[in-house]
Specification:
mainly alpha; 5 helices; myristate
Amino acid sequence: MTGTTTTTIRTKQTTKQRPAKTKPIETKQSNTKNEISSKSKPKSKSKSQNISTHAKVTKLASGEDTNKNKLTPQEAARKAAEKRLAESNEKQTKGELGKKLAKERAKSNKTHMMEQAEQQKQAGQDTLIYD
């Protein structure tokens, strides 16, 4: 065994400890039933927090609701989109060509495939005459 020798050097990897996210466990033991039961019961949220999340209803002295005619942003966007779609459909369906295009768009993919198959079948049945 002459020649070179190989040696491996192992390095020790060190890791940093992360700070604890939870509080350390107390070693003090409680003997009373009240302390044990109070720790085991989860705290319930107060009702005042839940009430604040609901929309406030405002009424005038005459008893009319002022929020009745107001729309949420989602409802307003939906109505505006429906209005734009109706206007564009109205513009596109004017005239004969627009009506034909509207009919073609209304057809499903299956209907288009059936029509195409019928046309190919009809073309295959036509007899070819060679001169």
